[in-house]
Specification:
The structure holds 2 protein chains of 2 kinds. By secondary structure, chain A is α/β, with parallel strands linked by helices. Chain A contains 10 helices and 13 strands. Chain B has a two-stranded antiparallel ribbon with strand order 1-2. The longest helix of chain B has 31 residues. The chains are: A alpha/beta, B mainly alpha. At the A-B interface, helix 2, strand 5, helix 3 and helix 5 of A face helix 2, helix 4 and helix 5 of B.
């Protein structure tokens, strides 16, 4: 969030790129509840930005304010240099949105839906090319209501793309998908990056954010609790890695070198768990010691904290509020 | 009749040879574009086709058979000459009100309207396009009722009163479209739309001279019916079809009441109409 500090004008001088989305102190109040309690966000051109949080954390409220569907109680919002509350047709020409809940146009085929929407924009994309982009070639002449859930969502993405927007909002695009449909959707979203689009993705799936996002912000109970890349979010890169192994029956944990015994965070009989900031170095020491004794460690396992570990830690205590 | 509508649909805007770049297209072209796809969706829906296009025609055949094409009604005209305008009123209401309310509510609750509004298309274009489709369907169904009445039952529409039929039908269709938009604001789920509009319209059809000549009704019921627009649409059309009618066949009081209802509907729609699902939560 430190990055937000000097970007108030929205027009970066020289080194700072102009943010596509800039949010400062955004607040949305429902009665006495702050659904969004003063958040700052910046999204830059060409990146896939993931907005992560549990259900009811304020994700959709925030996105709908950015899309111009909801009013805000307080704060400054700029999307493509325009306040979404005053976004006109020219602004909507440059923004695409996949809404959280929307069914296909009734009575129209995939191609007809796209033809209808193409007519709304000044410079739409080519229809067949867009159908190919989302992998619906074989369903082009199928009625929207006859598509599977995953195919409907891909049609939604195609409709959001047909106007050739600069910025695309994807609100929980894979909720309710089976694993293979999610993989397909991910490759479609990943493909937007190569089209040079900026993507604002909301999700509550860790693996989705990790797979797709350049940057992640985590919202919990209306506040941003962490921001970073998938690798650094919540200090993940500084968190200790875990090394686990089971010693053979004849060897007691006390026989381990002092250097490793000092790192032990758990001993369960013959099973040893070490926490280390320098896993390579300590595994090297362990391997030398084991090889010298002729001991094998077949279940040796080195694990970084997953994004999910970080996320659960970040959101757990905020959930009850 | 469906063929006739399909033809109209093709005329609305010829599909472009390639993907249509919309740059520089006029606003009227955009309304026609919207209307064309709304009409296509309408024609693909079996329920819409039956209740809007087939049912008025079916009623014409049934009622004329029941009354044996003898003299009925206050003006002493043949049953067929009575029922063509009466069921024309029903056809206008079926397309401009019943079908419109159901489709608008369904599209709103399924997020279709909201998604359309996330695009640059102006709100008025969506409304004008859908209204144009409803009015087009109304007028085509009326024309088919007239044609069947003419060739099967010898109904004669005086040339003199054609303006009366046209003006009454167009004003009526427009008024019922506005009322449809207004009523959709009071319906919170797609499932409730169909029973709600039928519950409103069925009794009104019966007391407003659409199904049975209202001279047979007790006077208090006729007074109740006179408050509502169904009576005035049916009345205006009955008058225009009446062989003894003088002038161009326009009943200005009926037009006036329809316009008044349209004004009320417009006030409600402007205040309450929403593009986002009523069931939506944060």
């Amino acid at each position: 969030m430190a990055a937000v500090a000097d970007a108030s004008t929205g027009i970066g001088g020289g080194s700072t790129p102009e943010p596509v989305v800039a949010v400062r102190g955004l607040r949305k109040r429902y009665g006495r509840l702050d659904a969004v309690a003063g958040i700052d966000l910046e999204v830059y051109r060409g990146e896939i930005f993931a907005f992560l949080g549990p259900n009811g954390a304020g994700k959709t409220t925030t996105v709908e304010i950015l899309e111009g569907f909801r009013t805000r109680s307080d704060g400054e919002v700029s999307v493509l240099g325009v306040d979404p509350a005053r976004g006109d047709g020219a602004w909507r020409n440059r923004v695409g949105a996949v809404l959280q809940e929307s069914q296909p146009e009734p009575g129209l085929t995939v191609r007809e839906c796209l033809q209808l929407y193409a007519g709304y924009y000044t410079e739409p994309r080519e229809i067949d090319e867009t159908i190919t982009l989302v992998g619906l070639e074989e369903k082009a002449d199928t009625l929207g209501e006859q598509l599977s859930g995953g195919q409907r969502r891909r049609l939604d993405v195609a409709l959001a793309l047909i106007g050739d927007p600069d910025l695309i909002f994807l609100d929980e695009p894979t909720t309710g998908f089976d694993p293979s449909a999610r993989r397909t959707a991910w490759s479609v979203i990943d493909g937007l990056r190569s089209l040079g689009k900026t993507v604002f993705l909301t999700t509550h799936y860790m693996d989705e954010a990790e797979q797709l996002a350049d940057r992640i912000a985590v919202i919990a109970a209306g506040r941003i609790v962490a921001e970073g890349t998938p690798g650094t979010l919540g200090g993940r890169h500084r968190m200790a890695a875990t090394v686990r192994f089971t010693l053979p029956d004849a060897t007691r944990p006390a026989e381990l070198p002092q250097e490793l015994r000092a790192l032990a965070v758990g001993e369960d009989g013959q099973r040893v768990t070490l926490a280390t900031q320098t896993p390579l170095l300590h595994v090297h020491t362990l391997a030398e010691w084991a090889l010298a004794r002729g001991v094998d460690l077949p279940d040796l396992d080195i694990r970084r904290p997953t994004l999910e570990d970080v996320y659960l830690e970040l959101t757990d205590d905020k959930q009850e509020g | 009749m469906i063929l006739l509508l399909r033809w109209l649909h093709r005329r609305l805007r010829r599909p472009p040879a390639t993907a249509a770049p919309a740059a520089g297209r006029g606003r009227l072209a955009l309304v026609l574009h919207q209307s064309r796809y709304d009409l296509r969706a309408f024609l693909r829906n079996k329920q819409s086709r039956f209740f809007t296009l087939i049912l008025p025609l079916l009623f014409l055949v049934i009622f004329v058979s029941v009354f044996g094409n003898h003299v009925v009604g206050p003006d002493g005209v043949k049953a067929s000459t009575y029922y063509v305008p009466g069921l024309s009123a029903m056809a206008v209401i079926a397309a401009s009100f019943v079908n419109l309310v159901i489709s608008i509510t369904t599209q709103r609750e399924s997020g279709v309207l909201k998604r359309r509004r996330s695009t640059p298309v102006p709100a008025w274009v969506l409304i004008a396009g859908r209204t144009l489709t409803a009015m087009g369907v109304s007028l085509v169904t009326m024309a088919v009722l007239l044609a069947v009445g003419r060739f099967a039952y010898g109904v004669h529409l005086p040339t003199r009163t054609i303006p009366g039929v046209a003006v009454t039908a167009v004003v009526g269709a427009a008024a019922f479209c506005v009322l449809g938009y207004a009523l959709s604001t009071a319906i919170k789920s797609a499932d409730a739309a169909q029973p709600m509009v039928q519950a409103i319209m069925l009794p009104l059809y019966f007391v407003s001279g659409v199904f049975i000549p209202n001279v047979n009704l007790p006077s208090w019921l006729r007074h109740v019916a006179e408050v509502f627009p169904v009576q005035h649409l049916a009345d205006g059309l009955h008058h225009a079809y009446d062989p003894s009618a003088t002038g161009v066949g326009i009943v200005w009081t009926d037009i006036g009441v329809l316009a008044l209802w349209a004004a009320i509907g417009l006030a409600v729609a402007l205040r309450r109409f929403s593009w986002t699902p009523a069931a939506a939560t944060g």
